[in-house]
Specification:
Number of helices: 7
Largest sheet: 7 strands, mixed
Order of helices and strands: EEHHHEHEHEEHEHEE
Radius of gyration: 16 Å
Shape: globular
Mean pLDDT: 84
Distance between the termini: 28 Å
Strand content: 15-25%
CATH class: Alpha Beta
Number of strands: 9
Helix content: 25-40%
Number of domains: 1
Low-confidence stretches: 1-9
Structural class: alpha/beta
CATH topology: Rossmann fold
């Protein structure tokens, strides 16, 4: 799943293609980021608590949005008065929609495991981008993603993942085990700086916060 080019690991071509195909299908059906609006909004509300958890206000903070899709989180963060923002996503069609919907905010097509380079942000967010079931190595990918997001963050990171297989189609969604996610954080030496929030009312996603 992760290929190495000149010492830099990135998502494989096959998994990039799977990602694009799924999101292009969802976009055609009107599910621009693959989530119902009320579920997506609830996810964003939880992610935004990183400010209180880190002791650094979200207002005025610089933010990187990993797997930004069509830019829904961008608008949410903008409404909360963030400072500089950058959204990055592999899927060109999603980036094009994000640019149309949020013309005053910057978006970039790319793989966060490779770029941005020589840039840091107060907070790094990742909402929904670890959902797709890859041919292999979802836990390996999560570990690389967490390590990379920590490299890019000055204050902290917040990301979510699916943790309840009863409500999702596992033919294309990957369901993570909470104990294994915590083990990954421990292996990266950030377990003591990690908080885990579970969604109420049987919702399917957990949110992880790691303070720098």
């Amino acid at each position: 799943m992760l290929i190495n080019m000149a010492g830099i690991e990135r998502l494989s071509i096959d998994d990039q293609s799977s990602n694009r195909e799924l999101y292009d299908l969802l976009n055609r059906e009107g599910y621009y980021d693959g989530w119902l609006p009320e579920i997506q909004r609830a996810n964003f509300e939880v992610l935004a608590t990183i400010g209180d958890r880190s002791g650094f206000p979200l207002k005025g903070a610089s933010c990187l949005d990993v797997g930004c899709g069509t830019g829904e989180l961008a608008g949410f963060l903008q409404d909360r008065g963030i400072g500089n923002y950058l959204g990055i996503d592999l899927v060109s069609s999603s980036i094009e929609l994000a640019r149309q919907r949020h013309r005053d905010m910057p978006f970039r097509q790319g793989d966060v495991l490779v770029e941005p380079k020589d840039e840091t942000f107060d907070f790094v967010f990742c909402s929904g981008a670890m959902t797709l079931k890859f041919d292999s190595g979802n836990y390996e990918y999560m570990k690389k993603m967490i390590a990379r997001m920590l490299e890019l963050a000055k204050r902290g990171i917040a990301f979510n993942y699916i943790a309840d297989s009863a409500h999702v189609d596992t033919s294309y969604c990957f369901v993570f085990d909470r104990k294994k996610v915590r083990k990954i954080c421990d292996s990266l030496g950030v377990g003591k700086r990690m908080d885990l929030a579970t969604m109420p009312n049987g919702a399917i996603q957990d949110t992880v916060f790691i303070r720098k």
